[in-house]
Amino acid sequence: MRAVAIATRWGLALTMLLGFAGISPALGEEEKAEGWGGHLILGGLAVPDYEGSEDYGPAPLAAGKLSYDDYYIEARGPGLRANVLPGDLLPFGLEFGPALSYRGGRDDVDNDRVDDLRNIDGTIEMGAFAKLYTDAGLLPGDEIAFEIEWLSDVGGEHDGTTISFGPSYSFQPWERVHLGISASATYASGNYNDTYFGIDADNARRSGLSQYDADGGIKDVGLMVNAIYQWNEHWGITGMAGITQLVGDAADSPIVDDEGSATQAIVGAGLLFRF
Fold this sequence. Notes:
Number of strands: 12
Number of helices: 6
Largest sheet: 12 strands, antiparallel, barrel
Distance between the termini: 33 Å
CATH superfamily: monomeric porin ompg
Strand order of the largest sheet: 1-2-3-4-5-6-7-8-9-10-11-12
Structural class: alpha+beta
Number of domains: 1
Radius of gyration: 19 Å
Order of helices and strands: HEEEEEHEEEEHHEEHHE
Strand content: over 45%
């Protein structure tokens, strides 16, 4: 498999996983114990070739969390974030801290006309996240949460900003099984949308696609579910599936409307180790 294509899909996997609160919350209250703790998940994903593609390919699934009391560093694919707030700051749960991510570019893709467009390199984004949560659910161990994450390009590739936000609910219907579901939406600035979905005169000449100017706005909405089966204290397996629907100027782009698909899916599975 081409290394560039895998890197592109890995970055896109992060984009889709940002709205996915399933991996960490669905692990339940055990990981909120005092002292050191955490988990590691390794596996594989099937994701679109690029944002808006109708072609799919493999990408690695790598996620993990290292915590000390209420503080933690968490990885979701090629993205990192850290909670810097104590857990007893407010009557309800609040987490907040910096976020860092790698966003994959678009290069050497399967669609010939999209491949004729100028390459988009991968880039680094920085920002922050906040999460409000409560365990006042229907059953012990349930968690209801709302997350928001803001990321801005610092690598100079798209010079734009995305804001992903949405609610999640995780629960434990049986002793060894944890389930999670989350909904999400993403706002993207004009610079972001025009980089990934716009077509200027040069790109129109290269590809034969119509010129298109993409403005900012809500870029996508999505739904994600995941399940974890833990057969002992340390080991388990996890599976996830989600769908993201591109909307607005992103969905109307010829890159998506003519050559790809506004409906983007992600499925994956991995091995879980807790410590």
